[in-house]
Amino acid sequence: MAVASPARAQIYTWADGNGHLVLSNRPKGGTEAAYVVPQSDSIRATRAVDVTKSSLYDELIREHARLNGIRTDLVRAVVQVESAFNPLARSPKGAMGLMQLMPKTMAEFGVRNAFNPAENIRGGVAYLKQLLTRYSNNEVLALAAYNAGPGAVDKHGQTVPPYKETQEYVSKINRISARPVQMRSSVIYKITDFVDGRESVRYSDQKPSTGTYEQIGR
To answer: What is the pLDDT of residues 203-215, one digit of tens each?
Structure first.
């Protein structure tokens, strides 16, 4: 099945001294200032977000989440991860706008202006819905495909690809969302990997053959 090229984002996470989850688009350097994230008591970010600016898109997010049958918190988390609610955001790889759409994704979903919030959110949520349908509403796999591409997810046996960027991306959205992303199986494994000397946590409904893991749900 032909699908659009995914948006891509590099995300880093860690916990601060108060136990808040800190999100950043760059590795931890030691003295980064952390700012409040709108509508969240437990998350901080290394880039300040204007609360009034983020609230401008609440209605659009709710509308398209409802039309596509996707929970609003998941869409809001994707927007925050991808652009920090900056409608003019552009990545070095060519992703654009609030949900960081690539040109092929724009063409598939009829988005003419990626920097138009209404068009961008419409196209981005429709693409996310396409991925959720493809992976039987498994939010983990849909988010992994949004970041790394469905080809990468399928290549690795319909699991989250072993890419640090993708694993951190899915983990970040999992923490921002109001509840954990949905898995296909009733059994959930929390898997801890060490990549480049850094601890990386991911979740899967498939029991890993290697590495450190614990069963956290049934």
So the answer is: 666 676 666 777 6
Name residue, tokens 């437990």: 42
d(CA 198, CA 214): 19
Question: What digits encode the pLDDT tens for the residues 149-183?
Answer: 899 889 888 888 888 888 888 888 887 776 666 54
CB 217 within 8 A of CB 188: yes
**Overall pTM > 0.70:** no
**How many structural domains comprise the chain?**
1
Report the distance separating Cα 66 and Cα 163, nearest Å.
31
Query: Cα–chain-centroid distance for residue 53?
Result: 20
Alpha-carbon span 199 to 6, nearest angstrom = 26
Tokens of 208: 């890993």
Q: How far, in Å, CA of 119 to CA of 198, rounded?
A: 38
Amino acid, single-letter form, for residue 4 = A
List the domain range (segments joined by +) for residue 115. Answer: 12-185
**Residues annotated as part of the active site:** 82
Task: Say which residues have a Cβ less than 8 Å from residue 142's Cβ, sequence separation at least 6.
Answer: 128, 131, 132, 134, 135
Q: What is the CATH number of the domain that holds 94?
A: 1.10.530.10
Which amino acid, 66? R
